[in-house]
């Protein structure tokens, strides 16, 4: 019996190799290998291995930690395999064969189709369509059946206040019952169905049964037009609609008992008459709280309510691939950062899909891009890449589907405040730093070995620290706008110009508290509402400005470093706090602006009735401040018997279709609402 050594691996490489990390194809067939011969410590050095032949051996299973992050083709024919679930450690696997393993059945085929999201060929057959059905339709049907089984037979068995023993008991009964009674598909797949049902049920329970968080949140409920008024006392009504909060490691989760609606500031809580129903009125958002998650804790501590969360951005959808969910019209996966970690969260389920940690880092910003990467046989496939940066001045580049941080760029010697990718050039990344510079990088496209070359294309000199940056939608390759500690600036970023280091081209003036125009103020919120309208704060407490980019920039007077007055279109009424770094965001498709405050509330502005007037070349400024359409109030949460107080909303965003709203806080809580 041959034992695996470094020398053997080098000899069996195709072609022969002198270093383990250079091996891409490896033939270990016909060596009488047993499971114990596959040494994870040795295999972990084969980081670029793409094809592995283990056929004609004596393997009964795979070790759980072989660490082959780039494995695409695996041959296990003629072994003694009894289980396939350990193959999930090879997420990029595209071709798999395990014929003549007498203990494996059709049920195992279905298991690997579910576990390996990139699998195309199984035992020589194209399984793409069947695998898509297993991963999506089958999973959706089973999830529906599992949830219905809980609601019908077990939900009422759980008391309002329950002990750990009660939870353990009902969990045991539910898992046994659901595996026995939930049936789907042919009987030949009953083992696979039970396996998936158990998996789905355990996930469901982990997000439904935790340690209870008490709440006294009394959220009034706005009634539907056809809803009858209740005769309940105010106390009874409040108890009926109050959400129940649960906490578990590592996240806190909210599960509302009854669908609620949040009021606009105008407090229009009464039913409308039929005549009023036909008048044009701004829509009430009716957002339902889904989850309150504590997933950025230092050292995974449940006691950490101090880590600040700073940046979040929704993952773009790919044309195809494992991460696309055809049920929804836009991505429901959001990347969040704060403290030492970056998390990927499914907004619908509240599940933390992935977590990336750097113990010595504090992450401030994340951004997505989609790159056409070479996967095998010179074929290209689009993959989402996440850039994350923070206090160390280093940009981490993460291939999310492969769970692999493939590189870093030492972009600045001081912390990076924010990053963003160009919408027109997928490899162009802007980094804004506390060194008072904004740099433009070409991060390149990694090859199949994750080799890449990054280069600096441009440096924009700032008078003060840049806090927020935005590319002008109508000319994203020519102008960049930045909100800084001491003003709002624009640079010409056109690469045809020879000058690599550039000063600003325009600085914008805004009214101060006395109404005087000034350039010296902190701009800690900046985003485009549409192709022309910019939302920014804060030169004056209690206000967010909406102003025209084109009409401001085209002000008479040419030359470098011009000072121009912003053409104000409107002011949005906002908190009077002088607290900085509570940033804003926009949803251009829905003409909405969002901004959190120092009390844990989210201010929502529906501006769809104003944008047409503003688009006119002679559009007049709105005379009065525009109040928020709605304010989402922070619920009263308790952790370890104490209220979470002084909650600041550092950042708030929505997905492009405004289905989900995500707010990041100063107390290590990620809050998710869903528009109902």
From TrEMBL:
Annotated protein name in UniProt: Leucine-rich repeat and WD repeat-containing protein 1
Protein's UniProt keywords contain Cytoplasm: yes
Entry superkingdom: Eukaryota
Domain Leucine-rich repeat and WD repeat-containing protein 1 WD: 286-675
Domain Leucine-rich repeat and WD repeat-containing protein 1 LRR: 7-200
Family that this chain belongs to: Belongs to the LRWD1 family.
SMART domains with a match to the protein in the record: WD40
């Amino acid at each position: 019996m041959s034992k695996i050594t470094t020398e053997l691996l080098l000899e069996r490489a195709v072609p022969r190799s002198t270093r383990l990390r250079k091996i891409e194809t490896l033939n270990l067939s016909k060596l009488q290998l047993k499971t114990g011969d596959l040494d994870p410590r040795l295999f972990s050095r084969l980081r670029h291995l793409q094809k592995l032949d283990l056929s004609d051996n004596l393997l009964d299973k795979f070790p759980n930690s072989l660490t082959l992050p780039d494995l695409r083709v695996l041959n296990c024919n003629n072994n003694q395999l009894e289980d396939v679930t350990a193959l999930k450690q090879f997420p990029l696997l595209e071709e798999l064969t395990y014929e003549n393993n007498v203990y494996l059945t059709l049920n195992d085929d279905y298991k690997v189709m579910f576990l390996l999201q990139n699998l195309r060929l199984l035992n020589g057959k194209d399984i793409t369509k069947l695998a898509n059905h297993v991963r999506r339709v089958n999973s959706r049907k089973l999830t529906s059946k599992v949830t219905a089984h809980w609601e019908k037979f077990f939900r009422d068995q759980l008391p309002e206040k329950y002990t750990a023993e009660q939870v353990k008991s009902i969990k045991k009964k539910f898992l046994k019952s659901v595996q026995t009674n939930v049936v789907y598909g042919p009987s030949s797949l009953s083992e696979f169905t039970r396996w998936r049902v158990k998996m789905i049920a355990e996930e469901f329970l982990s997000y439904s049964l935790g340690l209870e968080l008490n709440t006294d949140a009394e959220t009034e409920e706005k009634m539907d037009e056809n809803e009858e008024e209740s005769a309940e006392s105010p106390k009874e009504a409040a108890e009926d609609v109050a959400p129940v909060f649960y906490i578990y490691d590592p996240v806190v989760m909210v599960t509302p008992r009854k669908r609620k609606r949040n009021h606009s500031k105008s407090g229009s809580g009464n039913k409308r008459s039929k005549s009023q129903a036909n008048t044009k009125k701004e829509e009430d958002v009716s957002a339902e709280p889904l989850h309150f998650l504590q997933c950025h804790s230092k050292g995974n501590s449940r006691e950490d309510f101090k880590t600040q969360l700073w940046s979040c951005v929704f993952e773009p959808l790919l044309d195809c691939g494992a991460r696309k969910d055809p049920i929804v019209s836009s991505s429901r996966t959001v990347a969040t950062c704060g403290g030492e970690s970056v998390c990927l969260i499914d907004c619908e389920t509240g599940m933390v899909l992935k977590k990336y940690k750097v113990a010595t880092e504090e992450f401030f910003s994340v951004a997505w891009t989609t790159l056409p990467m070479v996967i095998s046989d010179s074929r290209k496939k689009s993959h989402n890449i996440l850039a994350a940066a923070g206090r160390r001045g280093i940009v981490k580049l993460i291939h999310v589907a492969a769970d692999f941080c493939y590189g870093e760029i030492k972009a600045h010697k001081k912390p990076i405040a924010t990053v963003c990718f160009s919408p027109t050039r997928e490899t162009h990344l802007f980094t804004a730093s506390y060194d008072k510079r904004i740099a433009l990088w070409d991060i390149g496209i990694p090859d199949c070995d994750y080799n890449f070359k990054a280069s600096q294309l441009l440096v924009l000199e700032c008078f003060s620290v840049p806090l927020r940056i935005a590319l002008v939608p109508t000319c994203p390759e020519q102008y960049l706008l930045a909100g800084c500690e001491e003003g709002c600036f624009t640079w010409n970023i056109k690469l045809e110009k020879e000058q690599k280091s550039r000063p600003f081209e325009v600085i914008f003036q805004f009214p101060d508290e006395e109404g005087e125009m000034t350039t010296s103020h902190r701009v800690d919120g900046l985003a485009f509402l549409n192709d022309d309208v910019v939302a920014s704060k804060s030169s004056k407490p209690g206000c967010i400005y909406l102003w025209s980019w084109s009409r401001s920039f085209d002000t008479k007077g040419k030359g470098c470093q011009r000072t121009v007055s912003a053409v104000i279109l409107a002011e949005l009424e906002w908190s009077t706090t002088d607290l900085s770094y509570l940033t804003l965001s926009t949803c251009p498709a829905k003409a909405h602006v969002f901004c959190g405050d120092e009390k844990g509330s989210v201010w929502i502005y529906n501006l769809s009735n104003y944008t047409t007037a503003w688009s006119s070349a002679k559009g007049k400024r709105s005379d009065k401040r525009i109040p928020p359409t709605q304010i989402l109030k922070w619920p009263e949460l308790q952790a370890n018997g104490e209220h979470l107080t002084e909650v600041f909303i550092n950042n708030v965003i929505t997905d492009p279709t405004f289905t989900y709203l995500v707010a990041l806080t100063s107390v290590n809580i990620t809050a998710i609402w869903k528009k109902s």
